[in-house]
Amino acid sequence: MGPQIHTFLFLVFVLQFCTLGLSDLIQDSCKKASDSDPNITNNFCVSTLEANPKSQTATTIEELALNAIDVTISNGTSISSAISNLLKNPTLDPFVKTCLQDCSDLYSDAVDSLNDAEAAFKNKDLGTAKTYTSAAMDAPSSCEDGFKEKKGVVSPLTKDNNLFFQLAAISLAFTNMVAHL
């Protein structure tokens, strides 16, 4: 074997080792989060973060926490867009329309809160970051509750609400981990 093959094999080994280390950060952080919060499932946490390119390159829990907040912001923004599309339906039941408008307001506020949480986190004001993240976590349940006020009405956002809640719970759990370093 020539020196080039040794260099190649060494690089492959180093890359595998580094990838395992980064994956361990996600695995370990998600395990701690799911152990500390029954609302977080380990598999969901790991698969969500491993699918995110920024999370894959995170080397600290601080970076992972910021990435989790970013993922949650993106998800909240997507839900807001989905609600806007649902509201364009001219045959929408008036009660459902009112609920969707309420959910739109809730998610707008939640995304604002998460942006504030992210800014506070970057300024190392973790108490404020946790407060804003917790506030954002109220959006999905409040949204769902609106639809439950009328018998027989099913929320078209249940799946989205559950996803957002779990993402926000992960963001909060990671922020708590950073606060306890």
Task: Please characterize this protein's 3D structure.
This protein is mainly alpha-helical and 181 residues long. It has helices spanning 3-36, 42-50, 53-56, 61-87, 94-122, 126-136, 138-148, 158-179. Helix 5 runs antiparallel to helix 7. It starts with a helix and ends with a helix.
List the helices and strands and how they pair.
Blueprint: H1 3-36, H2 42-50, H3 53-56, H4 61-87, H5 94-122, H6 126-136, H7 138-148, H8 158-179
Helix pairs in contact: 1-2, 1-8, 4-5, 4-8, 5-6, 5-7, 6-8, 7-8
Helical/strand content category: mainly alpha
What is the N-to-C succession of helices and strands? HHHHHHHH
Compute the number of helices: 8
Spatial extent as radius of gyration: 20 Å
Unreliable segments of 5+ consecutive residues: 2-22
Task: Tell the overall outline.
Answer: elongated
Largest sheet: none
The level of helicity is over 70%
**N/C terminus separation:** 47 Å
Number of strands: 0
The proportion of strand residues reads: under 5%
Average pLDDT metric: 89
Notable features of this structure?
elongated, 181 residues, 8 helices, mainly alpha
Brief characterization of the structure:
The protein has helices spanning 3-36, 42-50, 53-56, 61-87, 94-122, 126-136, 138-148, 158-179. It is an all-alpha fold and 181 residues long.
